[in-house]
Design a protein that fits this description.
Layout: H1 2-12, H2 18-32, H3 40-51, H4 55-62, H5 70-85, H6 101-112, H7 116-148
């Protein structure tokens, strides 16, 4: 949980408008749910440059997908996709985990095949919802913090 506190501190001290920091973070959270593994950081940096968003804020959002969170995030997205498409997750029970070699991979592919589209669509939908919620929550927090901050001291000449 220390990384979560550190990420929050980083976001509170990014030098940009609350809306732009929140937009970068929200887009990063969407990227965290992107179903293709291994491209999150590169995708975040390319979009940050292209959209002129804060690189730190977008990376903090994208890195919410990490070794500790990837399984729950992708599972939730897949379950959402399965519910949206009316696809049963029962095919996972057909995987024969005792097989070895090619037979195991054929069994694995057969069990996962019905869940590919729910995985992709469910994670994109959940990512969009999480990104929007993250944007709104962070923008509200940063604007509230900005309003309650004391005005800068006058510089006596």
């Amino acid at each position: 949980m220390r990384w979560l506190r550190r990420a929050g501190q980083i976001l509170l001290h990014v030098e940009d408008s609350p809306s732009r920091v929140a937009a970068a973070f929200g887009l990063g959270v969407f990227i965290a749910f992107f179903p293709i593994l291994g491209i999150h950081t590169g995708m975040a940096l390319v979009l940050a440059v292209f959209l002129r968003l804060n690189k730190v804020a977008i990376l903090v959002g994208a890195w919410t997908n990490n070794p500790w969170t990837i399984a729950p995030m992708y599972t939730a997205g897949t379950l959402l996709g399965a519910a949206l498409f009316g696809v049963s997750t029962g095919s996972l029970g057909t995987i024969d985990w005792s097989l070895q070699g090619r037979a195991f991979y054929e069994s694995l592919a057969s069990g996962l095949r019905p869940l590919v589209l729910p995985f992709v669509v469910g994670n994109l939908v959940l990512g969009a919802l999480a990104g929007l919620a993250s944007f709104l929550a962070l923008r509200w927090l940063l604007e509230r913090r900005k309003r309650s901050a004391p005005p800068p001291a006058a510089n006596p000449a």
